[in-house]
Specification:
Elements (H helix, E strand, L loop, with lengths): L1 E6 L3 H15 L3 E5 L10 H5 L4 E5 L7 E5 L4 E4 L14 E6 L2 E7 L7 H24 L4 E6 L23 H12 L3 E2 H5 L8 E2 L11 E2 L2 E5 L1 H4 L2 E6 L15 E5 L1
Parallel strand pairs: 1-2, 7-8
Antiparallel strand pairs: 1-14, 2-4, 3-4, 5-6, 6-7, 8-12, 9-12, 10-11, 13-14
């Protein structure tokens, strides 16, 4: 099974990028973040022509998540369990495929809205951990993929790329990421690439891409039985060098 996650930073601007990547890589499921559109504006037919069914949790101009799958699946959640049903921010989709619960997330950045925005980020992460714990408690195979907006360790960002007060590296954010690992989840990329820079994001500003001043904020976490099946996990760095790319690249994970 091939699973992937990609913050595309507007699906309407990156439709051809996603189409070409699907044709080349052929993942079984691709989770998208920051699609920045509502469902009627999502180019489902483009991906349907490649054999991928789309499910969308959209929002006009902001946020938005989706999943593209070429294998049978069912949607189990269109919002993070525990949030109010009328929560306007489209940040979560969860599906079941081949007996696995797979969540695609776009975790709040936490740098906007002052301290209230950071508190909201932490609350979202707490709810995510509670939901993951509930699934793990009943031995449900679980994968969580997406833009976590957290650099778990100092090795996950280029020197000087972030200040200590940035929400992506504040101790509270990192502690909640570690909480997910302590539940028994495995960071797929670090399991296979335990040290050194493995970036998934390069800002459009200040020459971040040519200077390789990147961040690792897009992650794939797996429950124990799935982690045992890991054979490959890495960002597709070449996508950042394409014409008019997203500032994130896909992260592809392969299971036996």
């Amino acid at each position: 099974m091939k699973l992937a996650t990609w913050n595309v930073n507007s699906i309407r601007q990156r439709e051809s990028h996603v189409r070409l990547w699907l044709e080349r890589v052929q993942p079984d499921l691709l989770f998208l973040q920051e699609i920045k559109c509502e469902e009627p504006a999502f180019p489902s037919l483009t991906f349907q022509a490649l054999g991928y069914k789309a499910e969308i949790v959209g929002q006009k101009s902001y946020n938005g998540v989706a999943v593209l799958s070429r294998i049978p699946f069912s949607v189990t959640h269109r919002a993070l369990p525990g949030h109010a049903p009328d929560d306007a921010q489209a940040r979560y989709i969860e599906v079941e495929a081949e007996g696995i619960a797979i969540a695609g997330i776009y975790l709040p950045n936490g740098n906007s809205g002052g301290e209230d925005g950071f508190v909201a980020k932490l609350a979202w992460m707490d709810l995510l951990a509670e939901h993951a714990a509930a699934l793990l408690a009943v031995d449900k195979p679980l994968a969580i993929l997406g833009d976590f907006n957290v650099c778990p360790d100092d090795s996950d960002f280029a020197p000087g790329a972030l200040g200590p007060s940035d929400a992506l590296v504040r101790p509270e954010s990192r502690a909640r990421y570690r909480r997910l690992l302590w539940l028994g989840l495995t960071d797929a990329v670090r399991a296979l690439h335990p040290s050194g820079p493995v970036y998934t994001f390069w800002d459009y500003q200040a020459g971040a891409w040519p200077r390789d001043r990147g961040l690792r904020i897009d992650h794939a976490l797996f429950s124990p039985t799935l982690a045992e099946r890991l054979v490959a996990a890495a960002p597709d760095r070449a996508e950042r060098g394409q014409d008019q790319p997203s500032d994130h690249v896909p992260v592809l994970v392969e299971l036996t």
